[in-house]
Design goal:
By secondary structure, the chain is α+β, with helices and mostly antiparallel strands. It has 2 domains: 4-67, Arc Repressor Mutant, subunit A, CATH 1.10.10; 74-254, Chorismate lyase-like (Chorismate lyase, 3-Layer(aba) Sandwich), CATH 3.40.1410.10. It is 31% helix and 28% strand. It contains 10 helices and 10 strands. The protein has helices spanning 4-17, 30-37, 41-53, 80-88, 92-97, 100-105, 125-131, 164-167, 184-190, 210-215; strands at 57-60, 64-67, 74-77, 112-121, 139-148, 157-163, 196-206, 224-233, 238-247, 251-254. Helix 1 (4-17) crosses helix 3 (41-53) and helix 2 packs across helix 3 (41-53). The longest helix is centred in the first third of the chain and has 14 residues, at 4-17. It is elongated, with a radius of gyration of 23 Å.
Length: 262
């Protein structure tokens, strides 16, 4: 038999899902809700905790509990990589019209807030081994954050690695002020005569670190999806590697595998 706080949570959940309680709407105080349901304030707090853990409401200190506004969902398909490859050789004006985030969310360029930072650094052994380069190799470590302008959390936490010596021929690729780069990484590599042959993606999930939960604004109990994307050129050489942390509450991973006919 359901406990009292579970029945209350279920009733409030239904009100949120049917639109009786609208996104951004403030809920009555805990005392008012306790009176409404004929239960104690501690029971009411347990019910509200359940809804917060589900990401349906959020508590704003000093203001109360509010219905959480739905976040923009990202649908990330493996077919996006071929779309990016086609786009990499288009004229700059065409490349500047849209990017991978817009492709995955349906938003427009002007809807987004973008930030990129670069630094030269050594990388861990797992990175150098993936590239097949000496452990003292210098990388360009690139950090990206993109968010919908009306939301406070980015869609993902992205760290990308390029071997500095591999890209130094084009100094523009060493300068973060050139971001956002129309056509993304595939066009950047194209300026060096590098064509991608395939992209490998490995996906795992785990609980977020406190820092990840805060930056991605995750409801309690929400997992993150960790994606390592490794790009190979037509000579079977690793030319770029990205570690991407995706919020589990608003990311859809879609994999389509064409099958050869008998």
């Amino acid at each position: 038999m359901a406990k009292a706080y579970e029945r209350i949570a279920d009733d409030l959940r239904q009100s949120i899902r049917t639109g009786q309680l609208k996104p951004g709407e403030r809920l009555p105080s805990e005392t008012s809700l306790a009176e409404q349901y004929g239960r104690s304030v501690p029971t009411m707090r347990e019910a509200l905790r359940v809804l917060r853990d589900e990401g349906l409401i959020e508590k704003q200190h000093g203001r109360g509990n509010f219905v959480r506004r739905p976040r923009t969902t990202v649908s990330r398909s493996n077919l996006r990589h071929q779309w990016e490859k086609h786009r990499a050789r288009e004229p700059e004006q065409r490349r500047a019209e849209t990017g991978a985030t817009e492709h995955d969310t349906g938003l427009q360029v002007n809807d987004l807030v973008f930030h990129a930072s670069y630094r030269e650094a050594k990388a861990g052994k797992d990175i150098t081994d993936a590239f097949g380069v000496p452990e003292d190799s210098v990388f360009v470590e690139r950090t990206y954050r993109t968010r919908y302008a009306v939301e406070r959390a980015p869609f993902a936490l992205v760290t990308s690695y390029l071997v500095r010596d591999m890209i130094a021929e084009n100094p523009a690729l060493l300068d973060a002020s050139n971001e956002p780069w129309p056509g993304g990484t595939q066009n950047q590599l194209f300026t060096l005569g590098i064509e991608l042959d395939r992209i490998e993606e490995r996906v795992v999930a785990r609980p977020p670190t406190p820092e990840e939960a805060e930056e991605l604004d995750l409801p309690a109990g929400t997992a993150v999806i960790l994606l390592r994307k490794t790009s190979y050129d037509t000579n079977d050489r690793v030319v770029e590697l990205s570690d991407i942390t995706l919020p589990g509450d608003r990311t859809e991973m879609l994999f389509t595998t064409p099958l050869e006919r008998w």
